[in-house]
């Protein structure tokens, strides 16, 4: 409500006010809806498992009589990351094939490296919600059959990222039945920082990669260092340097009781090179 004061406010020794009351102005009633929006985290969690809105599947071969299943995602959300965006664009090119991609039932498949369903679930959670959670509940994700009936996408023992180029509805009763079978037959429902690190490196998701690398380094001990080194760390310069540094500092302890800790890895193609690098680093530390 507006209050307007008259300009003539004084008569003799007394103050006299003339107050004019007016109706409400339009500005007092803005065109705003006061409905509280859904929390962004809850919204993304809902999207992450809403299979009916998704247009892309990461497919996996499942044993025990279960056919291939797919971890469904939204192309636009994955495309926030340039490496994944480039891969999605490649999948949209239907014509032609190459050594690492093929047509299966009219769907273009691009084979990627050998990681588990649980690992990809952790990756998808990070992309959608920015969370890192190694324990996996498949009910949090859109798990269904891959595109094109009758579930004939071939993974060749490797997961593949598959673009959806069909009218297959991933939420049909047939898909839901296959999904429940797949969920019930799976074994461990957890991933690891090592697997997530390698996935993040594969798709150039730096923030996730750096976080997992730091976790791996924090858990390094003289007892597990060589297992990590020969298992995968030798392929990554920064992680290899951290492991070799720990090995060099603890080499005397690791060689106690006349046991050669490198002996179990003698057949590894990088064994001689990595042992040489560790010895060089130890010698350098002694000189400094």
UniProtKB/TrEMBL annotation:
Matching Gene3D superfamilies: Potassium Channel Kv1.1, Chain A (3.30.710.10)
UniProt protein name: BTB domain-containing protein
């Amino acid at each position: 409500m507006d209050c307007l004061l008259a300009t003539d406010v004084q008569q003799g020794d007394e103050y006299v006010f003339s107050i004019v009351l007016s109706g409400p102005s339009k500005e007092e009633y803005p065109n705003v809806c006061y409905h509280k929006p859904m929390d962004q985290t809850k919204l993304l969690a809902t999207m992450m498992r809403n299979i009916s809105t998704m247009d892309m599947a990461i497919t996996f071969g499942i044993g025990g009589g279960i056919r291939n299943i797919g971890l469904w995602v939204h192309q636009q959300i994955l495309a926030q990351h340039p490496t994944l965006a480039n891969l999605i664009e490649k999948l949209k090119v239907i014509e032609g094939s190459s050594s690492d991609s093929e047509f299966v039932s009219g769907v273009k498949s691009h084979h990627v490296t050998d990681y588990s369903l649980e690992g990809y679930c952790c990756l998808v959670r990070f992309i959608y919600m920015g969370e890192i959670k190694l324990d996996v509940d498949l009910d949090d994700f859109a798990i269904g059959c891959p595109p094109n009936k009758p579930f004939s996408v071939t993974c060749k023992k490797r997961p593949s990222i598959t673009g959806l180029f069909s009218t297959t509805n991933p939420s049909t009763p047939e898909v839901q039945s296959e999904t429940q079978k797949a969920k019930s037959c799976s074994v461990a429902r957890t991933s690891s920082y090592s697997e997530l690190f390698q996935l993040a490196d594969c798709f150039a998701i730096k923030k996730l990669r750096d976080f997992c690398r730091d976790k791996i380094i924090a858990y390094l001990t003289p007892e597990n260092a060589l297992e990590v080194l020969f298992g995968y760390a030798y392929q990554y310069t920064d992680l290899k340097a951290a492991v070799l540094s720990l090995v060099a500092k603890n080499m005397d302890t690791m060689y106690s009781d006349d046991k050669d800790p490198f002996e179990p890895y003698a057949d590894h193609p990088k064994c001689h090179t990595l042992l040489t690098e560790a010895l060089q680093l130890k010698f350098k530390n002694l000189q400094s």
